[in-house]
Amino acid sequence: MTQVTESPVLPRQARTPGAVRRRLAGWPRWIGYVAFLVLLAYGLAQTYWASGGAGFPFGADDANPEYSAFEHVGRDRLAPWLAVGFLLSAGVALLLALPGRRRVPTGVLLGATAASGAAVFFTLADFRILGNLAYVFMLKFSAINWTVINQVFAVTAVALMAASAIAYQRRTTDACGNCGRTGAGAEWTSPASAARWGRKAAWTAVVVPLLYATTRWAWALGYPLGISDELWQEGKEDHLWILGAALATMGALGSLLTLGLVQRWGEVFPRWMPGLRGRRVPISLAVVPAWLVSLMVTIAGVMYIRLHFQGAFDNEKDDWGATVPETIWPVWGIALAAAALAYYFRRRGTCGHCGRG
After folding, report:
1. Which of 194, 188, 216 is closest to 283 using CA atoms?
2. Quick one: three-class SS letters along the chain?
3. For the chain, does the N or the C end have fewer beta carbons within 10 angstroms?
4. How far is CA 89 from CA 8, 113, 117, 281, in A?
5. In whole angstroms, how far apart are CA 311 and each of 73, 74, 199, 302, 321?
């Protein structure tokens, strides 16, 4: 009798789009372990640098230390603190990942997560993440440096930690791990309510970057709005204002795309898009990029606020147009994140896991 063997097709079936989607939908079960491994790896990297290893990217060792919150702090003092911080964060992520409730109070775990995120977002990371993204779209890959790569890694690590905290909070409050809904729905998350406050947030996210872009366009057109004639002339000679106008235009176009979060063409592909016209826009296609941009512009805006408090611009009070418009970017970032969240609430429908709608 011929022996029946297992079909070699099965491993391929496990990699079908449906299987991938199911695995991604199970993120509340595994996200904490991923966060733990990433934070542990970076904590060990910081330990290596603290012990004298080469390549430390932050503080006085930064390629551009003037942007750093630790401009005058060397590796010997900063790396040990970062090592302790990331290793402790890894421990918190593991506690969040393990099933069941922890003896450590939930408030402590969530507070530690918030503290880790704030420390990275507001001290280690800065506007260069956003700037390098713009350079990538302009195919200027040489602008990316080691510090920016490490900033992205650190931000990703604490973002994973935040996601694991969300999963833990839902698990310990008997909410659905995927949608976060409980038996009693909150009024502010209803589609009708989200449509109202989401529209206000979307228009705020459109106006704020246009205020910033106005200064850059004015400089490119020959009007030194908010800067001295001397600084404008220097920038003109170096062609900085053309580049600045190009980056501002990219930001302005991106802000106009925000209207898709409250317009029909943000839910159904318009007729002028061959091959996609009439199809529903995937929720993640609108929400994920919006949340990523909101995070980056908030980080950039906070950096400018921090530099103002540090007195970095005290000698440039006549050139307020170069630094003040960026300080309102956190408003842009928060509004954009809120608009994307409202879009998600409006379109998510009935949860495929808990059946709540």
Report:
1. 194
2. CCCCCCCCCHHHHCCCHHHHHHHHHCHHHHHHHHHHHHHHHHHHHHHHHHCCCCCCCCHHHCCCHHHCCCCCCCHHHHHHHHHHHHHHHHHHHHHHHCCCCCCCCHHHHHHHHHHHHHHHHHHHCCCHHHHHHHHHHCCCHHHCCHHHHHHHHHHHHHHHHHHHHHHHHHHHCCCCCCCCCCCCCCHHHCHHHHHHHHHHHHHHHHHHHHHHHHHHHHHHCCCCCCCCHHHHHHHHHCCHHHHHHHHHHHHHHHHHHHHHHCCHHHCECCCCCCCCCCCECCHHHHHHHHHHHHHHHHHHHHHHHHHHHCCCCHHHHHHHHHCCHHHHHHHHHHHHHHHHHHHHHHHCCCCCCCCCC
3. N
4. 42, 7, 10, 36
5. 17, 21, 37, 14, 16
pTM across the whole model:
0.87
What b-and-e string marks burial along 146-159, b requiring 16 or more CB atoms within 10 Å of the CB? ebbebbbebbebbb
pLDDT at 40 over 60: yes
Separation of CA 307 from chain center: 21
Q: Identify the residue whose tokens are 């059946």.
A: 355
> Does the pLDDT value for residue 100 go beyond 60?
yes
Q: Torsion-angle region of residue 192: left (phi > 0), alpha (psi -120 to 50) or beta?
A: alpha
Q: pLDDT tens-digit profile of 148-180?
A: 999 999 999 999 999 999 999 999 888 888 888
Residue 30 has pLDDT above 60, yes or no: yes
The tens digit of pLDDT for each residue in 213-267 reads: 999 999 999 999 999 988 899 888 888 889 889 888 988 888 888 999 999 999 9
* pLDDT for position 41: 98
